[in-house]
Write a structure and sequence with these properties.
This protein has about 375 residues and is an alpha+beta fold. It folds into four domains: about 160 residues, MoaB/Mog-like domain (Molybdenum Cofactor Biosythetic Enzyme, Chain A, 3-Layer(aba) Sandwich); about 55 residues, Molybdopterin biosynthesis moea protein, domain 2; about 80 residues, Beta Complex (Molybdopterin biosynthesis moeA protein, domain 3), CATH 2.170.190.11; about 70 residues, Beta-clip (Beta Barrel), CATH 2.40.340. It has seven helices and 28 strands. The chain has a six-stranded mixed β-sheet, with no helix packed on it. A hairpin with a 2-residue loop joins β22 and β23. The chain is elongated and about 95 Å long. It binds adenosine monophosphate and magnesium ion (MG). Adenosine monophosphate binds next to α3.
Length: about 375
């Protein structure tokens, strides 16, 4: 058996960064920016009014000014504003030359072509040119792009965005006992759940998952599933990875030419795990127990996907928190305990069986117990993976 960190190193050795592609801005949400992008213009490109009102050279309360024109968004007033003059102006419109401030319309009384200033308090109500950003302002990579970034890049006139290629991932469930959600299972059957959980995890990571048909527990069916991997960068099988009579993933993958990188990892849950390369695709074989598969998804698959997206080869980031309740000593395998984190700290669930998706669903953290860790008291600081 090898350690989790050895296993990760071997996975990273197999995971090749997939490089960059350019996508239209509308497709950039959720993608990882791979190269720094820069603003192509100043925003605003001219001193702009922040309010509806009157652009003036100067204004003192009680003064009457002559309105000499109008500046609207998209239609500037071309002249100068001098002493005793005002230009009707609207939000976003260029502030005419000579104006030092915009008096808001609520603070004046208009009569025909004149205004009387009632109140001259407040700021200038002018947004200087480049106050938001200037040509060359950077958005630096790497960065997961969200709605606010998309708005900013649009404003910067960045129409195409360099992003990490999304890893294409083919997911294969194996087992005679499995049917798809929505189907009616036979008396000895259960619903395939892992592929669905992993699909969602991969989506959240920014990958492009694809579900292949469930492979049955015979070599021919498994070979058919493998033949459907297509152009996937990563193929993940679930189940059939142990040493039971019906565990065919390793022999079938070997038959198809996969060099197996390793097979067993000293962790709980999720001991059986394999990896290798099958033609152009990297392959990871996950254990079938639902919680094992999901935990391996967080511990192994997520870092591999990040490495493929050029984000570096690093384990899933851990945090620390105090224990809210004691935990017993740990055995020889690193244990990822389903736990609940709240203001009082981390509490591990009593039931840690690797088949219990209800417990995983109630957990918001995986408490990480090092191999051979002593019993720990409440209040001790421990590491966890947020879920
Ligand atoms: P295996 O590794 O194939 O021996 O599977 C171990 C356990 O996980 C068995 O109880 C299987 O029924 C279950 N299992 C395997 N694959 C899945 C899956 N995709 N969804 C839900 N349970 C699964
Ligand atoms: Mg099975």
């Amino acid at each position: 058996m090898i350690t989790v960190s050895d296993a990760l190193d071997r996975l990273f050795a197999l995971a090749q960064p997939l490089g960059t592609e350019e996508v239209p801005l509308l497709q950039a949400n959720g993608r990882w920016l791979t190269q720094t992008v820069t603003a192509r213009r100043d925003q605003p490109p001219f001193p702009a009014s922040a309010m509806d009102g009157y652009a003036v050279h100067a204004a003192t309360p009680g003064e009457t000014l002559t309105v000499i024109g109008e500046s609207a968004a998209g239609h500037r007033f071309d002249g100068m504003v001098g002493a005793g003059q005002a230009v009707r102006i609207f939000t976003g419109a260029p502030v005419p030359e000579g104006a030092t401030r915009v008096v808001i319309q609520e603070d004046v009384t208009r009569t025909g072509d004149t205004i009387t200033v009632n109140e001259a308090e407040g700021g200038t109500n002018i947004r200087p040119a480049g106050t938001d950003f200037v040509t060359g302002t950077e958005i630096s990579a790497p960065r997961r792009l969200g709605p606010n970034d998309i708005a900013l890049m649009a404003s910067m006139n960045i129409a195409r965005v360099p992003v990490a290629r999304r890893p294409k991932v083919a997911l294969i469930s194996t087992g005679d006992e499995l049917v798809m959600p929505g189907e009616t299972p036979g008396p000895d059957q259960i619903i395939a759940s892992n592929t669905f959980g992993l699909y969602a995890l991969l989506q959240n990571l920014g990958a492009e998952p694809r579900l292949l048909p469930i492979a049955r527990d015979n070599a021919a069916s498994l070979k058919t599933a493998f033949s459907l991997i297509g152009d996937a960068d990563l193929a993940i099988t679930i189940g059939g990875a142990s040493v039971g009579d019906h565990d065919l993933v390793a022999p079938v993958a070997a038959d198809l030419g996969m060099e197996r990188a390793f097979h067993k990892v000293a962790m709980r849950p999720g001991k059986p795990l394999m990896s290798g390369r099958l033609n152009k695709a990297m392959m990871i074989g996950l254990p079938g127990n639902p919680v094992s598969a999901m935990v391996c998804g967080h511990v192994f698959v997520a870092p591999v996907i990040r490495a493929m997206m050029g984000l570096g080869a690093a384990p899933a980031p851990r945090r620390t928190a105090p224990l809210a309740a004691p935990v017993a000593g740990n055995g020889p395998r690193e244990h990822y305990m389903r736990a609940q984190l709240d203001e009082s700290g981390l509490t591990s669930f009593e039931r840690q069986d690797s088949s219990l998706l209800s417990v995983l669903g109630a957990a918001n953290a995986l408490l990480v117990r090092p191999a051979g860790d002593d019993a720990r008291r409440a209040g001790e600081i421990v590491e966890y993976l947020p879920l």
